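Example with several molecule types.
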Amino acid sequence: MTVAVEESPVKKSYKWVGTRPVRHDGLEKVNGKARFAADMTKPRMIHGHVLRSPLAHAKILSVDTTEAESMPGVKAVVTAADFPPPSKNEGFPHRSSNLIAREKVRYEGQVVAAVAATTRRQAKAAAAKIAVKYEELPHVLTVDEAMADGAPLLHENLITKGLDTTPKQASNIAKRDYFEQGDLEAGFAEADVVYEHEFTTKVVHQGYIEPHACVADTSKDGRSEIWCSSQGHFMVRSATAEMLGWETSQLKVIPAEIGGGFGGKTTIYLEPLAVKLSQKANRPVKIVMRREDVFKATGPTPGTKIRVKIGARKDGTLTAGKAWLAYESGAFPGSWGMLGGWCVFAPYDIPNVQIESFEVVVNKPVNIAYRAPSAPMAAFATETVIDQIAREIKMDPIELRLLNAVEEGDYNHSSMVGTFQRIGLKETLEAIRDHPNYKIPLGPNQGRGVATGFWFNIAQSSSATVNLTENGRAVVVTGSPDIGGSRVSMALMAAEELGIDVKFIQPVVGDTEAVGFTDVTEGSRTTFATGMAVVRACRELVTQLRERAAIMWDCSVEDVEWVDGKAHHSGNKESPLSLAEITAKAKKTGGPLNATGSLEAKGQGPAFSTQICDLEVDPETGKATILRYTTAQDAGTAIHPSYVEGQMQGGVAQGIGWALNEEYIHDKKGVMQNPGFLDYRIPVASDLPMIETVIVEVPNPKHPYGVRGVGEVGIVPPIPAIANAIHDATGLRLRDLPMSPVRVLEGLNQQNGVG
Amino acid sequence: MRYVRPGTVDEAVSLLNSEPESCVFAGATDLVPQMQGGRPEPKLMIDLKGIPRLVKVSYSNGQLVVGAATPVSIVKVDDNLKAAFPGLSESSGLIGSDQIQNRASLGGNLCTASPGADTIPSLMVNSARVVIASSGGTRTIPVSDVVTGPGSVSLKSNEFVVEFILDAPPKRTADAYLRFIPRTEMDIAVVGAAARLTLDDADCCTEALVAIGAAAPTVVRAPVAENALRGNPINDETLAEVMAAASAVCSPISDKRGTKEYRRQVAGVLAKRVVLQAAKRAKEKGGAV
Amino acid sequence: MVNVFLGSNLQRFTHGVEEVEVNASSVKSLIAELDRRYPGIADALDPKFALAINGEVIANPGYEKISDGSEVRFLAPMQGG
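Resulting structure tokens for the full complex:
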């Protein structure tokens, strides 16, 4: 049945929503009992090892597994020949052509074959005996190289989409997106200040701590069970089935706990290999990536080259914006350039706009989502130029943003959403403007930068089943892996609906056969969309509880109200019945109480975040140390404020790493030089101050509790906030990432006429 | 691959001689990642941590003796060592993480022979000597004679380091170590600098040793900087000479951790800062331990 | 009437025109009408296309009703982190 949950978003006080109970899965997470994919073990289980390409670009002439198959302990070997040919329609983000290389390898680390043997060492030793003959091809690593005339082609049939006339010849440019509104020339003519600059960013990885891992157990009846870590086990089921040429019903996927994803676990890498090895060996097979594999063959997010030109009047009104964006997408096309184009001017009401974006394939791992994918790079360019304009016209950078910020009813062409519904950008800007940290005096070599960021958020399908137990508790089963505290958030919404203590709610992540279809935990959608499914199920249960109370009281259901976890007789003829009193009598009133809720959610609310970075630059070494960091973000409604704050802080921490030190470093042959956390420098705890959070709550009118997504937008402002702070501290405008000590010192030397 | 844990130096020596493809190790904090990264596995791995002489810190006759396999987590907190060689204690506490420091050792840090090894500059400015064992008995050489290039040492394949000997420093003498890393911890030096200074009662420098790490194929001494310090007060003029000399002594490479220009420039900065720190300590400190 | 905005990849069917007015009351009738006017455009839609109707993103549109005066945008499939 359908229960209307899209009621009006009046900000109200709740009993459970907005409180901070200990998360239900907390104890097991801290005492080590929680089981991650690599913890799974099965009787007779053997171990897989994946052979990966050592070359960035090469033709595969032959793959000979004869010697490997005769090595000690080897039970199965798979190559591309064991998988059906890629479907013509296969596309982003799950691709058989990426899962295992066929005619060509297109990046260092691409899978060529896999071996299963009794021990990991045996599997590794056998993989080394697979003889692969390559013919090396020239490679391209950057958008400049890939877009150059005569560049080596990754795909001989890749014809650029979205150009006015379809090109006859293949190139490395997969797609061009273009939009314009107003009169660009007139807009710039109207401006008193115009700045245009070019920015570059490097490939960075999501950097989740848990490497990909799975165990597959394939039976002779043609079914397989998969235990794995992912952001969505229904996605694992469908994508794995597609690559195997199987029916989805042949696969059951059981979600393990997940040790971080940030978008990087929204696709599959190992599962079809493990299923096939298991089928051939007739044994359960476990494959666990090493960190090196994770860097070389999963993730990352694109490197980019972006030019942004913005014009403004002296009074601060933005008159025109032009952006040219080229996003790498790795070895196969994605949609990163398009997303960057949508985000580049989204926070601002600019009347005259032109945006052209490109999607460019390069010989690097296939890009996958990373926390507000594509938005941080675009924001780096826009927010830096906005800062420059604010300085030129001597206007406070927050006031400049407030003057031009989009709000409800603003028609924002470039965001592609069109007219904004109720959003909270201005509220985040005001929260920062009024924050005491915005006024703290700075010392020598210290600087302050601000920036703002936008992200769409995503809705999609979710399902929930809620079972009431005999003793009056509720088991809430959803299909969303818990990455950022979603179990406790589901429990809080269920507690609010049912009126029982949140500790009496047991939130569970169900496998693909225990709960209805649920899309990937991505796009900050889970608390929003899966939350809606939980609310639906709970409201259906309240109806059932009223019906049971009516049976117990022998009255009409219309005479029963559900208030604060109890059935009340409208005429006060009966003492209220608690939920536990009703479930205790369930067998006598019609049987167990349970309900499901499911929907294709709509109406996610866009998210905005505004941040202040205070830092100090060591003028002799170029090292920037973050002194203070403040972030204000519109959460809609914070269901569990601690996990909202955690998401806000996590986004900032990753943004700081991206800004200051993270980058993929390749040698001339396209081989990654830093595939480990020693030289791929994500921040360590002591690098960061406590990140101060301000949760802004502008409820989303399309959610029963006003939820917007909170997981992603926090990573959008840090890069420009840091760049603007470095400028404030030193006078240097850095437009190339990372803003590492080497780069800062080079800039300072140039400024001082040294070197 | 076979693993053995001998209990004496003699036993370790004969094991090393028994198998040409053998390898001694202490913490294995470099060895294990190297083997995972494709370094050929030896047939025999000899764990030196079972030899009591190699896992202790002791003092006698004005000398400090540190067993080559002693965890640097002990080196960093040993009170006597900290008082006499604060810079060596400091550099020991910068290696890897707490977990790594519970395994890593001075002997391993030296024999891995990384140009960026944190403890080598400190051992060099303190003129440490190294006792080396082989079937022929033991020999003692200056620490500066061990490393010959990145990853290579002057030891023969049947030799290993037993212990380090450091003489107690004279009065008003102190060392310091600083390194530059882009993060705050758990990193490898982009450049490192150690200094040991002796001051007279007028705070004039009478003796100076300066060593620079990660800026040449091996850790290098900076003799011109040392000469600039000797016989002079620690003032801006002296420090400017130290900076220039420290930069000049470098022959760095550009790699994933930094450019050669950066290393050269920051070597000077660190040399200046480490000299100031050593001088401050020397002033605060009285006589020898 | 419904105001429909077409991305650059669909504008080749409309000779570069980005905004078109269409008489339609549902996503189904909208696409049918567009295809009648610009033959081939329906097949050119990404199989996983999304829509924004009056600023609300619909990831898997198909049978939605569209009220008169609405603003409809065709979007390529999106991904989040």
